[in-house]
Fold this protein.
Amino acid sequence: MSSARAIINLDLPGPTISRHLYGHFAEHLGRCIYGGFWVGEDSEIPNEGGIRLDVVQALRALEIPNLRWPGGCFADDYHWRDGIGPRDQRPRMVNSHWGDVVEDNSFGSHEFLALCELLGAEPYVNGNVGSGTVREMGEWVEYLTRADDSPMASLRRTNGRDEPWRVPYFGIGNEPWGCGGNMRAEAYADLARQYATYVRNHGGNEVYRIAAGAHDDDVAWTRALMEALTPFGTPLARPGVFQGVSLHYYTTAGPWTDKGSATLFDDDDYWRTMAASRRIESILGAHMSVMDTYDPERLVGLVLDEWGTWWDVEPGTNPGFLYQQNTLRDALVASVHFDVFHAAAERLVMANIAQTVNVLQAMILTDPDSGALVLTPTYHVFAMNAGHQDATRLEAHLLAPDLVRRVAEEDVPTVSVSASSKDGAVLVSASNLDLTASVELTLDLRGGRLADLTGLVLTADRVDTSNDVDRPDAVAPQPLEVVVDGGVVRVDVPPHSFVTVRGTLA
Ligand code: AHR
């Protein structure tokens, strides 16, 4: 058994951890929309207007704050007018990025906004820069958000929706350096200014415009976007034409050509994954430091609108559908990311896991034949961490100098912790990445006392354990013993586990 101590100052509040750090992403990709969220009104699966109610219920329990749609790469191929009006008259298109399948557009703007209403989530609509026009983007926003009898508002009414929707987040293209148009940074930065100009605030709908950002450590792209907001090195003094800058970072166990299996991995694969996962800290740090140079007041938000694990697809499934299983390893990738997100809360305003159902690091997997639904280990991390949403970060200093694992050239800390308080309740999260040793974790609480302490642990005998239809709860939270000894709280954090401790301020 190893030991670690986390000093948590209950009376030193930090910034608010935006609930939007627990955001989601749903693309027209594989079985995320079709079969995942949408089964159509005639399905035997219980649905409301075609939207699966079991999926809605499971996600409502996570209090998901926002949902990004329709892509991803798909967004820059998507023409919103094809997805409105009677479903049997909607034009078809080829989804060339994802499986080269024919998309019938039966899930469009009205269906997406109805889904957000059912989920109680805020919509984040991603517009088309790569193959769309400025006018098309401007009219989409008018269609969705305008109240009067303007041409687009009237068209929306023709299609059965009187009241405008609230659309607080709008993306200006996606990955323009690749699938979104193969552009150079400065060329896209100018387009971002132009397109964002026409994403207007109609009535009371104030839009947070998100310029499509870099991937990984491409800070030159972020610099180009910041230059476009505030040229000539003048620090940004007021919000610019776009308010957020995005970033994408995926975790793999190897290079893109050899990402590895979701379920069949050895210890080396596991540690390479954990090293890649921890890298999110330096990657966020690098982009935030570029943003600080141009925008010391932090008027521009960093939006990590795609993150998560990306493995080889499950054998026998369509390679373009990105369907992968999800094990306890994925759960630990998520828990480590969240600790880093909390630490970056001053600048990081949103993060969206890719993707919610049936694609990449999903919360929910649905069986294509029986329709049965399975909650993944990652789902449980989101559930156990839900109390951090809109909570005040508490500084948690971890003293565990020896708890590192050397992976290639990197030292990977094997314990990770974060803490927050909200409405008189304190939530502490901790991950132990070690594959064999438990950690006796002491919570050294200063500046206050906690009562009514309870704990949860997410683990399994093996780190490659997953949930499926036959064993839906192989990885599910269990009660964890919390020992209170004077002012000190102690928990045993098992190998490869994620734990939470909750208490109320006494
Ligand atoms: O999430 C899958 C894809 O990954 C998205 O469509 C794209 O933006 C990224 O490359």
